[in-house]
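Forgive a beginner's question, but might I ask you for the amino acids of a protein and the tokens describing how it folds?
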Amino acid sequence: QIFQPLHTLRSAEKELLPGYHQFEWQPALKNVSSSWDVGIIDGLSGWTSSVDDVPADTISRRFRYDVALVSALKDLEEDIMEGLRERGLDDSTCTSGFTVVVKESCDGMGDVSEKHGCGPAVPEKAVRFSFTIMSISIRADGEEDAVTIFQEQKPNSELSCRPLCLMFVDESDHETLTAILGPVVAERKAMLESRLILSVGGLLRSFRFFFRGTGYDEKMVREMEGLEASGSTYVCTLCDSTRAEASQNMVLHSITRSHGENLERYEIWRTNPFSESAEELRDRVKGVSAKPFMETQPTLD
């Protein structure tokens, strides 16, 4: 493998990069360009003005979400075909009904400052947004239950985690994160309402995607859902209990925070319809303060 002419290695490399494989969405994705041969794009795509006076083109680089997912599926092509064979499924009849579960992860990368360089002045913290294909299953025609044909054996390994977006930003900078991850969320939302048509094993097959935001730590969940930071009286990211309540009751908790509800509370915080004092208002919205922009689902990893 190693001693090959450079052009052979180059073309092998190209196949691994997002933007190499043809695919189609049915129906076409809303708000997403129809060209499939997309490489690395400016993470602030659509935002021309710079954020906080940092040149916009230095802030972030990313792949388009659907293009990256296609590349990841093509990477798993052999595993998918192997899975169909192991389950005794005739691959020529399995062209639709594939379900792909994707785990999303996002975390700060600490201090990445250039110690003695003379590049452009950029924030000295970075954030990486990535995803892992957790499982692929298929529901064969006439069958009740779906059959899992691929399961990621090392779901928390660096090797199965695929970077989607790298950005120079502090993970506490809600505005810049919103500017960069907003388009990513829009693409994901569009994909939920559509099916991917992609050639796998020589046949066109259709895939549906489900996304689980289980790769966020508590700080990032609070950031993405617009909750007060970890020192807040409201200790839980999934329910409204305060520190005092939580210390009294360690058992009976129900998940009461949903993305939709957090959005409603943000609106109350913003408009203050009952003309309450800051303290009363805070008590009403239970620690929601900044606008949430990403739907995180309370599912355990």
